Amino acid sequence: MEAEPRPIADGADEWITKMKQSIQESERIRQERLQRPVIDSYDYRQYYASSCGPCDLPVPTVACMECGNERPIPPRKDGTYADSPVCEECRPVLIARHNAAKYTGLLAASDIPARLVREAQSCPPYSFLPGLVEAAKAGRGVLLFGPTGTGKSVALAQIALALMREGTAVRYRTEKDIAHDMRPKDFSEDDRDRLRHGYHNDPCLIIDDLGRVASAYAVEVIEDIIDARYGWDRLTLCATNLLPADMTAGQYGRIVSRLYGAGEVRGVGGDDKRRGKKGGKP
Predict the structure, then answer these.
(1) Which of 21, 40, 177, 259 has its CA 20 to 30 A from that of 110?
(2) Which pLDDT tens digits describe the chain residue by residue (282 residues)?
């Protein structure tokens, strides 16, 4: 015996009809949203007025961490929303502050003597400097040679400051400093290898007073560093009081050859800026 169908409660048909209409309306809205173009623009007012307004959807907003003003959140391409911490007007201020803090940190870690930093910031750029700055930014090394006091170290410091303003880490050492750091002493071979690895891979290494020590050990250490940096295409800036011809004829032949191949070589002449004494010209 078949069971009789249960009677439908009063109003059930009307309720089922409304549910079907609601589902259809939801599907229509979903399909309509999928067809909307997603724009990658910071002018959101017109987009939300034309898209979200007719659908009565709440426009998500966020407070700028700088000025505190509320602003619409830009939609991502997948339909979700990206919560940006600052508004368009405050973004340059935040970027400038971040770059200034990063530059200060890089300068503090560079080991450039404070006197060189002051002179590099106060004195006008040398006539030959712009081309060297552009070469260094392009990854080309620099070798400056000339008499004492002609501004080679200050010029290297000015190049280093320009690089650090662009976010490049710089490390300043003299040949004497490197030879002292790498000489055998009371640390393990692993520590020495770690120090050597740092000299090999620093993004930018300044070697000042090249040729001052001129001992066999110093030349061996500098040659190892220059050879590794040349092979790995690392930026190296050097200054020396010796002429390239004298260095090539002596113990620094291989070093000078790699410095010539890695970048720009410039002679610096003129007066001794420390003593006001006329210096020779390279």
Answers:
(1) 259
(2) 555 555 555 667 787 888 888 888 888 877 877 776 554 444 444 455 444 444 455 566 777 777 878 777 666 555 555 556 677 788 888 888 888 889 999 999 999 999 999 999 988 877 667 788 999 999 999 999 988 888 899 999 999 999 999 999 999 999 999 988 888 776 677 778 888 899 999 999 999 999 888 788 889 999 999 999 999 999 999 999 988 888 877 788 888 888 888 888 888 877 777 776 444 443
Please list the residues that pair with 143 across neighbouring strands: 238, 265
Radius of gyration of the chain (CA): 33
Q: Check residue 81 and report its DSSP letter.
A: B
Separation between Cα atoms, residue 282 and residue 272, nearest integer Å: 13
- Among 238, 110, 233, 91, CA closest to 168: 110
Tokens 């050859």 correspond to: 257
The angle at the Cα of 200, spanning 198 to 203, to the nearest 5 degrees, equals 80
DSSP 220-233: HHHHHHHHHHHHTT
Q: Provide the CB-side half-sphere exposure for 177 (13 A, CA).
A: 14
Neighbours of 31 (CB within 10 A): 9
Query: Model-level pTM?
Result: 0.68
- Please, are residues 202 and 174 in contact by the beta-carbon 8 Å criterion? no
Q: CA nearest 259: which of 277, 242, 232, 235?
A: 235
Partners of residue 239 on adjacent β-strands:
144
DSSP string, 86-108: S-TTTHHHHHHHHHHHHHHHHHH
